[in-house]
Each structure stands twice: as structure tokens, then as C-alpha cells.
Amino acid sequence: MSKPKLWMTIPVTTAVLLALAGCGGQDTKPSSVDNMSPAAGEQAQSGSGGADFSNGTKDSGTDTTETTGTEGSAGSGTSNSETGSNDQTQQSANDVIKDIRSQLKMKNASLPTSFPLEKGKHLTAAITSNTSDAFHINFYSTDQSVAVNDASLTASGSKVPVLASYEVKTYKDPNSTDIFPETDLKDIPEDMTVDLGHDIKGVAEGAAGSQYLTWTEGRWTLQIRSVSQDNMNNPGIAKRMVEYLESHTLPAPKDKGFVNVQYPSGGKSVNVTISWQDGKQIHQLQTEQVPLEALGMVVSVK
Length: 302
Description:
about 300 residues, two-stranded antiparallel sheet, 4 helices
């Protein structure tokens, strides 16, 4: 029996066949998102212009999402003193990545190289699995410099906040996984079509108390899911993601890639999973950072 098209049934665990290009435009500047402060979510409000952006910053698990009702709060610059601090933070982060590479058993492993650290925070990591064909790493944001694989990071009851996890697995048949949805956005009904800008169209659907917005860019499928009663502005979030990817390039997957943005009830937090296939390997980053920061970490993978 043939599988239903995505705009008829919400994708869960099927394969995807997409066009033949990587996602996003050419990078014209370093892939750092340290100075970005996009929203954890947008909620539709009258007079907001369809865009509520907050700083979306989290500290030790505490949600500090604020609704500003304006779009302009998403991309402010930094002072000279902040820039100097960020340079030092990035240098420290580079040392962490270098240390991780030296310990990984997989040859020529790709890793994120830029992270959305708050001013004064430090990057560290714990390698939780490490073989020649697979590895898993948790990245952390700490108040002080902590060595990679320090026991305090994985100790029982540890409250060190996980910034993101990143893993690479090698499969005999990557197509056998249930990571990637089947996507067919041809012949979308007009009343379900959403214009996301830059000649990109998305499809909006509702099912089982949730609202979905799905679109494709090259070989990538991108989807936002939120709870219907939260009245999240999924199109506003999607447009910011599309705009970001016009100047930042995601890895070009061999066959398929999937950006899955999930807003739990209330819309005050977000779970982002970004997966892509590279030969027989599948790369996956998971984070509770806001979508643009999640994209920024994946853009920096090298």
C-alpha cells in the first residue's frame, strides 16, 4: 500500500525523497550565533504584527522567555566589551572542540564549532559513547572552565545545563531508520498554503490538537509543531528560519535532512532535533535552544 502524502497525514516515521540541493544560501560570514537572541516561540497577538520575539535565553533550566510584542528585539548588536568577552569564549570553545576531536575514535569526525553561550559562560562536554562508527556528546554551559569528560558533568543529580547533544551513527542501511518523514508538497490546496518568503511555500495542517507547518528547502524538510490552543505564530517562526537560511548554509545531506521544531503546551519552551544523512552516517543535534540558535550550531558543523 502506498504511503499518504504529508499534507494529508502528519509525518511521523517514514522516509523522505527531496530535491537535489543542500539547504540555505551561501555563508558570507562566520557561523557564530553568539550574539543572536531570537524567540523561544511566537504567539499571535493583536497589534504585534504577527511577531513576538523574546531572548529565549535559559539559565540552569529556568525559562526566561519574555513576550515583547515586537520583532525588533530579535537581533541587537553587542558592545565592544561584550565582543571581547565573546572572543575569549569562542577561543575557549575552540579548545574544547580540539580536545574532543583528539579523543574521538571515529576518523574525520564532524562537530559543531559555534555555540550560543551567554556572556561569561564556558563550553565543556562529556563524550557518552565513543566507537569507530558512532559517538554521542553532550555539550554543557558552565559558570567556570570545566575539563571535557569531568565526572561532575555526568554525576547523579548533576544540574549542569545541557546546551545540546550531538551524535553520529553509522548504519548498514540509513534508509531503514524512522528519523525522516515522507514529504510530498506538490499540489497543496490553496487554503493550506503559507507564503514563507523567498519563493518558499509551506503547508499548514491541524491534527489531534496540534498545528503543523511544513516546508522543504533542497533536500531538507523543516517542520514546526505547536499546540493549537496556544495560538503560536508558526508562520512567523518559519519566516525567521527561512530568512536565516538565506545567508547561512546547512550541511548538504546525501539524501535527506529534517529540522523538527516542537513547542510543548504553553509555548514557553522548545525542543529542536536536526538530523541529516551523510553516506551511511546519520548526524543528529538535539537542543532546547531556540530554532535559530539550533540552526546556527548545525551550520557550524565541520
